[in-house]
Protein: TerB family tellurite resistance protein
Amino acid sequence: MSNRVEKLSLLSEMIAFAKEDDTLKPIEFNFLLGVSKQLNISREDFDYLISNPIGGITLKSYSERIVQFHRLVLLAHLDSSKNPAEEAKLFNYGLKMGLNHDSILRVLYLMDGFPDRMVPAAVLIDIFRTQYN
Structure:
């Protein structure tokens, strides 16, 4: 990912995703803080985004969209519980990002087969690669 605006936008989108139920659990906060560190976003910018979301930017690269979808999958299942509303949000976010409908459904279906419902990155990439070819 090349620019700061894209990184801030992605993190803001993740924060909005986590806060859709009007709460930000400590485990979600810590996960998002870790993502912000990965993206080289300062703590001050992170704290600002918690209160002041910014508009979303559509990623041009298909692989970057897959990585962002994986982050959302991990975020949605931090508490290890199955939540149909969160799965619907994930599905809609995936479609909004322009990801393949069948690949998204396959990821959501396979989550139940993994410990803590966390789909490994390699599995997720293989699912999207198969549909992309």
